[in-house]
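Final report, closing paragraph on structural work. Over the funding period we assembled a curated collection of sequence-structure pairs, and we close with a single example.
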Amino acid sequence: LISVAIVRIWQVTPFAVLIFLARLLSLPVEPYEAARVDGASKWETFRYLTLPFLYKYIILVVLFLSVDAMREFGTIYTMTRGGPGRATEVSSMYAYNLGFKILKMGQTYAMTHVILLLTVGIAVFILSFWKRLED
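Its predicted structure, as stored:
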């Protein structure tokens, strides 16, 4: 399980870093100059300027990575095939085993729709934070 987590972190970190780097490079300079003139410390500058500028992008990265985690199959199947035992079996792998090994297509169909509805629910929940930031 730890090896799968390490591989997933290795896979998704560049995506998050690129999103944050793009936003950090496009931040306006004037508020930082004003904070420096007013005597703000580096921590205060980060907390009151940088972090609010990054809120939307943090939510965006969380949304993308949450949806990506819900559909994760390939890495886990390639590394562990769900084992040892069922230690790394995720919902998509369970649906795969149910459909193609046990041949219960009706249950597989229902399971994949539950996964879809859960993913959409998570996305709507995360996007509600985005909407709150715009208001």
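The chain is about 80% helix and 0% strand. The CA atoms of residues 4 and 76 lie 7 Å apart. We thank the funder for supporting this effort.
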